Amino acid sequence: MIxxxxxxxxxxxxxxxxxxxxxxxxxxKFFGNDEIEISKTKFNKILFFSKRFAAKEAVWKAFSPIxxxxxxFRDVQVISxxxxxxxxxxxxxxxxxxxxxxxxxxxxxxxxxxxxDEPPHALAFVIIFLAPNK
Length: 134
Known about the structure:
The protein is of the alpha+beta class. It has one domain: CATH 3.90.470.20. About 45% of the residues lie in helices and about 35% in strands. The protein is built from five helices and five strands; from the N terminus they run βααααββαββ. It has helices at about 10-20, 25-30, 35-40, 45-60, 90-105, and strands at about 1-10, 75-80, 85-90, 105-120, 120-130. The strands form two sheets. It has a three-stranded antiparallel β-sheet. It has a two-stranded antiparallel sheet with strand order 2-3. The radius of gyration is 15 Å and the shape is globular. The two termini are about 15 Å apart.
């Protein structure tokens, strides 16, 4: 069963302006350590961060209407598996928040994500499925 769906589109020029203005302060506030490390290997860092920012927004939207500030963007990381398929890793306060919801509804969340870009735009689409706890 679907628990939530979220999508976000962003103009990467907006992220570029923010990174140029705040640099590491912005990156360290909104992106996790794994994402920051992976970004160092990317040719187009702006597009890389833009897609991940859109993904974080999409996750936040997928949890609507329970948005009580418990989704911390830095805790929501988008990394790729060996084949390049993006996946969502959640940690920190956000993980605790999600685990409490899972316990209260006696279900486990499974995240599916798709990222796309057509520069200067980046898009993320997230679906949260429920599976019974076992």
